Amino acid sequence: MQGVFTGFATIGVVIAVGALLAHLKIVDLTAQRVLSQVAFFVGSPALMIVTLSRADVRNVLSANLVATTIGVIVPVVIYVLCARFLWRRSLGDGTIGALSAAYVNAGNLGIPVASYVLGDAALVAPTLLLQLIVLQPIALALLDTDALGRSPSFVQLVSRPFQNPLTVASLIGVVLSLTGWTLPDFVGNPLELLGGVAVPAMLIAYGIALRLGPGLGAAGSVAELATTSLLKLIVQPLVAYAVARFALGVEGHALLAIVVTAALPTAQNIFVHATRYDRATVLARDTILITTMGSVPVILLIAALLG
């Protein structure tokens, strides 16, 4: 259990640093946007290359992946239906809302939780790869499409994901993993150093936004915020459990790993994407805050019931 608290405490401290810097007027919302841009265009792509190149992508072909995929699809579909028919959200806002409801913090929180609670950091790899290779490129393509302000041509639609640095970096990482190639030190070392910028930049930018941005629930719909938070904290882990346990027959530690991973909070990089495209920024911020706080008791309960 100490690993759970350590992971959350680490994130909380770095976010608090960003909020303190904003409170002391050392930085402002301009700095928040700059940090988000640096994380999006530099730090995150470097981190994706380093992380994926070291992962065994063959682990994706497992029961973990099946349960994880369905666990993502169900909350996304529920949110999209609500966004379309209840709240009339645009494509960009709806995409960020869907990510807020299902995109887990598999990197900077999932890895320490997998290491200390589950005993193996590799257990989070299927979720990490699914999000980076499938979910994130699709979402970024939709956000890019929305940003055009018009329906793109087929060529634009197909090529646009590959113009995004995160997608390109993810594909490079997968190729390196599959081929076993190792980057030379003069390339790998700078990438690793730049990748180290991503998470703290995201978290500090998030802390600045918490201190200087609109208050909690100011996104315009408390019902929408409640929906994204409940889908992430309750629906996603329940669906992953049901699929893994009853459809695939997974038991024991493997089942615990699947459910704990599904219960991780919304990832901070969703806020970076929201800021980058100026879509549903407050909804992403608030969902991250609520799910980050709420996931602690949820994960502890899961560990107590299935551990």
Automatic annotation (TrEMBL):
Subcellular location(s) per record? Membrane
Is Coiled coil among the key words of this record?
no
Lipid bilayer topology:
Multi-pass membrane protein
Q: Which residues cross the membrane?
A: 6-27, 34-53, 65-87, 99-118, 124-143, 164-181, 193-213, 225-248, 254-275, 287-306
Which key words tag this protein in UniProt? Cell membrane, Membrane, Transmembrane, Transmembrane helix, Transport
Main localization is membrane
Question: Its GO biological process terms?
Answer: transmembrane transport
Q: Which Pfam families match?
A: Mem_trans (PF03547)
List, alphabetically, the PANTHER family matched: AUXIN EFFLUX CARRIER FAMILY PROTEIN, SLR1864 PROTEIN
Q: What is this protein called?
A: Transport integral membrane protein
